[in-house]
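F.,

This is the one I mentioned.
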């Protein structure tokens, strides 16, 4: 962990303090300047020698700032929390003590089906059917939202999980009791990594890793490799940003397959 000696204050205009953050320049270590920005976010994990340790597939403990749950793969995690509360009740203990230790956001997005189309009431009709088919599951998730601290359930009809993550759930910077630190997330959706486009370190993982993170325990992960693109010049007429993204994606897939 980073030393408290490098905690740096951010003053408020007119006096006072907005918060504190761990200042990397205060470490006075020339290796920091050689690190990719995406790796600097993880620097509290003592990976400052990333340039040498990354090729060796060194494992590190990683504790994300928050957890993202897609409803199909995320519901079992909420079920496990409910089972832990049930066990606490049977033991005669206070079950309300069972809560996620980091913010958890389940997004209900994978239950919609298109039964009605080409009509003015198509959206409402499809959502009505969605609620009829998933009444029990939705009621359980609503209970989880009211029962657990640190849990925000995004209801049906709000959008697909990675869109909601990008537009509503990302914090970019967390402020916990005056300590400012970078947002980071693990999620049960394979598109969780889209959040990287906002400068938020994100990984798509399985249910076991998510539950480990929910309970405040570090996940074990290999030091990430970093591939950079340098974009120069300008678009030809008719070329869009989507064309650029798809081209870069194609090149990355070729690179990964080649390795």
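My design for it:
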């Amino acid at each position: 962990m980073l030393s408290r000696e490098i905690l740096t204050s951010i003053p408020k205009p007119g006096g006072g303090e907005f918060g504190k953050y761990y200042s990397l320049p205060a470490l006075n270590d020339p290796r920091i300047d050689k690190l990719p920005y995406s790796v600097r976010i993880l620097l509290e994990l003592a990976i400052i020698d990333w340039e040498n340790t990354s090729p060796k597939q060194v494992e590190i403990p990683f504790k994300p700032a928050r957890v993202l749950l897609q409803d199909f793969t995320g519901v079992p995690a909420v079920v496990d929390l409910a089972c832990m509360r049930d066990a606490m009740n049977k033991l005669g203990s206070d079950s309300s003590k069972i809560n996620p230790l980091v913010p958890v956001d389940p997004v209900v997005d994978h239950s919609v089906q298109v039964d009605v189309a080409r009509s003015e009431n198509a959206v409402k009709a499809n959502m009505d059917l969605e609620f009829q088919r998933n009444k029990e599951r939705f009621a359980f998730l609503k209970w989880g939202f009211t029962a657990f601290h640190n849990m925000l359930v995004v209801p049906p009809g709000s959008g697909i999980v990675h869109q909601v993550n990008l537009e509503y759930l990302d914090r970019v910077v967390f402020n916990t009791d005056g300590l400012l630190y970078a947002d980071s997330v693990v999620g049960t959706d394979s598109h969780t990594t889209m959040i990287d486009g906002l400068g938020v370190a994100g990984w798509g993982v399985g249910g076991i890793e998510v539950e480990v993170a929910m309970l405040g325990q570090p996940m074990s992960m290999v030091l990430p490799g970093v591939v950079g693109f340098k974009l120069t010049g300008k678009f030809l007429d008719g070329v869009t940003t989507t064309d650029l993204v798809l081209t870069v994606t194609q090149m990355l897939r070729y690179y990964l397959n080649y390795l």
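Residues 66-222 form a domain with the Aconitase; domain 3 fold (CATH 3.30.499.10).

Talk soon.
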